[in-house]
Specification:
Layout (H helix, E strand, L loop, with lengths): L2 H13 L3 H6 L15 H18 L3 H9 L16 H4 L2 H13 L3 H11 L8 H8 L7 H12 L7 H13 L3 H13 L6 H9 L2
Helix pairs in contact: 1-3, 3-4, 3-6, 4-6, 6-7, 6-8, 7-8, 9-10, 10-11, 10-12
Length: 206
């Protein structure tokens, strides 16, 4: 099966809550790398994040906390976990979601630390997660963040699924519902890249 289809299967299984089957598909398999394409490490971290969120929501906080705290840990038989995870773990979205897990499980100080880290990001593909994180912190200034979001929206986005997904997120955060809906639709009509289909489905989900 082509690598991109394996990724889509893994992410669909994750969305369905079948995290064990999704994780099993990473083993004993070669993942071809495409320049500018989806990185297997992104998919691996995403499955772990979704697992942790589901565990926390289900009240299984011990398992949820172990999952997020093992995100940087090398898995012995998964060569791709030896290096290259840190840039993904550094992203605003990753820190926001980890903060949500910590917050749900009563680890307020750890949650705040993650939200503070995420809130420092300003790139257009991270600014919404920075904004969501800032809303969790004392001293949140809506006007200041409104300006940051509007500045990010004024940037030139790539005419790709990833570009439209990120523009949709910003439009949604600004309350531009019709524009957000249009951009999410465009994201799903273009070739998938950088988890755009999966992330768009999450954004449009219940």
């Amino acid at each position: 099966m082509p690598t991109r289809l394996i990724y889509e299967l893994i992410l669909n299984l994750s969305e369905a809550g079948d995290y064990d089957t999704a994780a099993a598909l990473f083993h004993h398999r070669f993942f071809a790398r495409e320049e500018g394409g989806t990185n297997v490490r992104q998919v691996w971290i995403e499955v772990q994040l979704q697992r942790a969120l589901a565990l926390a929501k289900g009240g299984r906080c011990g398992e949820a906390l172990v999952t997020v705290e093992h995100l940087p840990v090398r898995v012995p038989d998964l060569a791709f976990t030896r290096d290259g995870l840190q840039p993904i773990l550094w992203l605003a979205r990753t820190n926001y979601l980890v903060g949500e897990v910590y917050g749900s499980c009563g680890e307020a100080a750890k949650a705040q630390s993650r939200f503070e880290l995420a809130a420092t990001r300003s790139n257009p593909d991270q600014v919404v997660w920075a904004y969501r994180s800032a809303r969790k912190l004392p001293g949140f200034d809506q006007r200041q963040w409104q300006a940051r979001l509007e500045t990010a929206l004024s940037r030139n986005f790539s005419q790709t699924s990833w570009g439209f997904y990120n523009r949709a997120l910003i439009n949604d955060a600004l309350g531009h519902a019709a524009d957000a809906e249009g951009d999410f639709s465009k994201a799903l009509l273009l070739p998938d890249g950088l988890l755009a289909y999966h992330l768009t489905r999450l954004a449009l989900g219940p």
